[in-house]
Amino acid sequence: MSGCEARDAKKLVRSPSGLRMVPEHRSARSPFGLDEPPWVPDKECPRCMQCDTKFDFITRKHHCRRCGKCFCDKCCSKKVPLPRMCFVDPVRQCAECALISQKETEFYDKQLKVLMNGATFFVTLGTSDKSELMVCRLSNNQRYLVLDGDSHYEIEILQISTVQILTEGFTPGGGNTRAIGMILQYKVPGSEELTQMKFTASEDFSCNKKLSASWLAAMHKVSKGGKTYRRL
User: Fold this and answer.
1) 132, 123 in Cβ contact below 8 A?
2) Any idea where the FYVE-type domain is (predicted)?
3) What is the domain extent for residue 154?
4) Each residue of 13-25: pLDDT tens digit?
């Protein structure tokens, strides 16, 4: 077990919004997670905050689990998975929030799983002319990029400043390209200087090419969605 995963234990907690499976230690929280929002107090929402319908004994009020605002059943009827808040089951969300959560499903079901499964690359540190074959993967708590070979590195996701995907096959008139590597820049804790790593896909096996390309595509998605998915 790597040091960054030594505190991965989780616990089941119940909140007004539903059951959540959360890390026991706050320091182990995923950088892609969201905090539960405070609910708008019932006394402050006499009407639906979407359609302005007045609440009464028949028209009940419901809180969206993602934004915490107050709606009637018609405007807050969808139950959608919300993994960013660690909910065990789909939870009630307003139409706007449900749409956002549905768009995030692919990110959680595909990109994050690909990154956690890992891929093999030749990794070059800084300006060195030597590279090392390493298995690269996202840690189980999604906080670190873990590199294992003869050496071992754990790079905190929130310390990564830039991700540049390297491709080949580009032509001036357009055309297909494929990812063959990436250049990563990050800050080492306690230092303000940037450290650079270059990742190059191994050409040893054709199956590894496909796996590496998928992993790089997922990493590109994470870097592009940084402001959306990461707590800054």
Assistant:
1) yes
2) 42-97
3) 118-169+178-221
4) 898 888 998 888 7
